[in-house]
């Protein structure tokens, strides 16, 4: 079990206060890491950090689309801990529409708003690039580190739009083009960075989770679960083991890979 030990490691989680981000933080802290809880919301980051075991942990307000925000965070992290060992690139936008009455129409590819697409692209792709560049460079200099880019099953396969139809056969929503497109980019960016930084001892892998149950409509949960060999959506805690594995020496000979944890969704 020492292979999974992260004692004295500094682990950064971006988007740390989201549904899965909080669980990444909890898992890394439980494995012994000092966790940097990086989120755009400082108050939320403070609350998450306060609830983690071990420590010390560092809550930081970080905007992954702003190089100056990331650079300031990097300097503060190195000042406090002296090194950066793990980066979980988790911050992302899964685009939604505020008005449910308009969601089905606006989420269609033919009508999808350019401004929404550009916002998702900025966070999901540019944000991953910038965080890897600014937090990963010190890893390359020190000759070790692990970067975990969080993608999605929709970065591997196309969305099944039928699961968004309600019992009356009405299309309540279309999974939009921006999320699958950006998550597919994350998968291949992992391969690029693994090849580039491999000689410097920095491992870079993708974690591709499946859908997490989180108060969705009952018809959607039923239809998603029916397409999944394990017969259910994920719980938010289902990715804790995977993130510790990728962060630790347990995956020491693994880089450029895509670890798919989806209940079998992409297997059929």
Automatic annotation (TrEMBL):
<dbReference type="InterPro" id="IPR002347">
    <property type="entry name" value="SDR_fam"/>
</dbReference>
<dbReference type="Pfam" id="PF13561">
    <property type="entry name" value="adh_short_C2"/>
</dbReference>
<keyword id="KW-0560">Oxidoreductase</keyword>
<protein>
    <submittedName>
        <fullName>Short-chain dehydrogenase</fullName>
    </submittedName>
</protein>
<dbReference type="GO" id="GO:0016616">
    <property type="term" value="F:oxidoreductase activity, acting on the CH-OH group of donors, NAD or NADP as acceptor"/>
</dbReference>
<comment type="similarity">
    <text>Belongs to the short-chain dehydrogenases/reductases (SDR) family.</text>
</comment>
<dbReference type="InterPro" id="IPR036291">
    <property type="entry name" value="NAD(P)-bd_dom_sf"/>
</dbReference>
